[in-house]
Design brief:
About 85% of the residues lie in helices and about 0% in strands. It is an all-alpha fold. It is elongated and about 55 Å long.
């Protein structure tokens, strides 16, 4: 029981890290990187760049969801 509690606590820490990192990633991608990219890539390619940056931010959401699945598996 102690071991399962420790595992859930550690995995919960991972979820917290993902939740704290997501807003930083969104800020870095859309407020900082996207304006810089606009000077280097043609305007017609900006929607694709935005899509790639959105996918990068989505990796944090996917990581948190995968950790939730792990917690469910350990609790089961």
């Amino acid at each position: 029981v102690l071991q399962a509690g420790a595992i859930v606590a550690l995995l919960g820490g991972r979820i917290i890290v993902h939740a704290l990192t997501l807003p930083l990633e969104i800020d870095a991608s859309f407020r900082r990187a996207l304006p810089l990219l606009s000077g280097y890539i043609p305007p017609k390619d900006m929607p694709a760049a935005r899509s790639v940056l959105k996918a990068a931010a989505g990796t944090y959401v996917a990581g948190a969801l995968a950790t939730l699945v792990d917690i469910g598996r350990w609790l089961r």
